[in-house]
Amino acid sequence: MLRVGKLAKAKSTSSPNTKKAITLSKRVGLIGCGAIGTVLAEAIERKLVACDELVVFDVNVAKAEKLRTSLKFPVEIAESLEELLAYKPKVVVEAASQQALKEYYDQILAADVDLIVMSTGALLALDTSSCRVHFSSGAIGGLDALSSAALAGIDEVTLTSRKNPKALGKNNTQKCIIYEGYAEEAAKLFPREMNVAATLALTVKPTKVRVCVFSDPAVKRNTHEIQMKWRFGEMLLRFANDPHPDNPHTSALAAWSAIKLLQSVLEK
Ligand SMILES: NC(=O)c1ccc[n+]([C@@H]2O[C@H](COP(=O)([O-])OP(=O)(O)OC[C@H]3O[C@@H](n4cnc5c(N)ncnc54)[C@H](O)[C@@H]3O)[C@@H](O)[C@H]2O)c1
User: Fold this and answer.
1) Ligand 1: which of 58, 163, 202 to mutate, judged by most atoms within 8 Å of the beta carbon?
2) Tell me: the pLDDT tens digits for 20-36?
3) N or C: which end of the chain has fewer CB within 10 A?
C-alpha cells in the first residue's frame, strides 16, 4: 500500500515540518478529494481562486494522489488532519462527509483558521457561533433573500427535491415520494443527498423547514424548489442542477458555490 508521507516527500521540495514555520497568506487546506474537492482544485489551478498553495487530505490516499498528479499547481498531501493544520492554511474547505466534519470540527476551529463547510447537515448539531465558520449555498441559492425574510418573520417554508433514483441510491421504476418530514431528519437520513435541507434550515432558523423528496426516473437533473411565505410576501426559488459526472449524488452547482465562497473568504 502506498504511504502518503513518502509520496508527498518524493514530490515535494519541503517537508510539512519546514512548512510549519512559514505562513503563506493564501494557502488552502482541502479535506476530501472527491467530486467537489476536484472541481475546487481545478479552479485553483485555473487561477479562479487566489491561492498560493493547496494542501489536501483524504482518508483514501489514492484519491489525494490522483488529484495531485492531475494538477500542475503545487499540491501537498497531508497524512492526517493534524498534518494538514500544521501547514497553517488560511482556510480549510471541508468537502468530505457529515461524519468527517463532526469528527474534525473542534480541532479545525481550535487551529484558528477559516472553515468552509460543504457537509452542512453536520452543522445542525454543532455550535456555529464562530465567525470563522462559513457554509456555502451548495446546490441551492437565494440565501440572502431567505435570511433577510427570516429576520422579519417566516410563516412557512418548504423544500421539494426531485432526483433520479441513481442520485438517491434507489432503483424505483415509478415516481415515488421517499421522504416527507423536516430538514433535520432529512439531512440525517440522506447525509450525501440532502445537505440542501440543512443549508435551508441553517438559513431560516428557528423556522422549521418542511421537506419532500421525490425519487423519479424521469428526472435528469437534481431539482430543488423552495417555497416560502413570510411577513411581507412570498418566494419561489427553483434550481435544476446537472449532477456531477463522477458523483450523481452531488450537483455541479455545489462545487461552484464552494469556489465562489473560497474566493470571498481569501479576499477578506
Ligand atoms: N451543501 C450542499 O448543497 C452539498 C451539495 C453536494 C454535496 N455536498 C456534500 O459535500 C461533501 C463532499 O461531496 P462530494 O460530492 O465531493 O463527495 P465525494 O464522495 O465525491 O468525495 C468525498 C471525499 O472525501 C473523502 N473522505 C470521506 N471521509 C473522510 C474523512 N473522514 N477524512 C478525510 N477524507 C474523507 C472521501 O474519501 C472522498 O474522496 C459530502 O458530504 C456531500 O454530501 C453538499
Assistant:
1) 58
2) 444 457 999 999 999 99
3) N
Nearest Cα residue to 56 out of 73, 254, 47? 73
Active site residue 134: no
The CA distance from 31 to 7, in Å, is 18
Residues whose beta carbon lies within 6 Å of some atom of ligand 1: 31-37, 57-60, 63, 95-98, 100, 118-120, 138-139, 192, 195-196, 199, 247, 250-251, 254
Q: Cell numbers at residue 244, please? A: 456531477
Q: Mind listing the pLDDT tens digit for each residue in 203-250?
A: 999 999 999 999 999 999 999 999 999 999 999 999 999 998 888 888
Mutational test site, ligand 1, from 250, 251, 260, 262, max ligand atoms within 8 Å of CB: 250
Q: Does pTM surpass 0.85?
A: yes
Domains and CATH numbers, the chain: 4-135 (3.40.50.720), 143-242 (3.30.360.10)
pLDDT in tens, 176-203: 999 999 999 999 999 999 999 999 999 9
Using the Cα atoms of residue 82, residue 83, residue 86 and residue 87 in order, give the sign of their dihedral: negative
Which ligand 1 atom minimizes the distance to the CA of 95? 12
* pLDDT for residue 6: 34
How far is the centre of ligand 1, averaged over its atoms, from the C-alpha of 25 (Å)?
Answer: 26
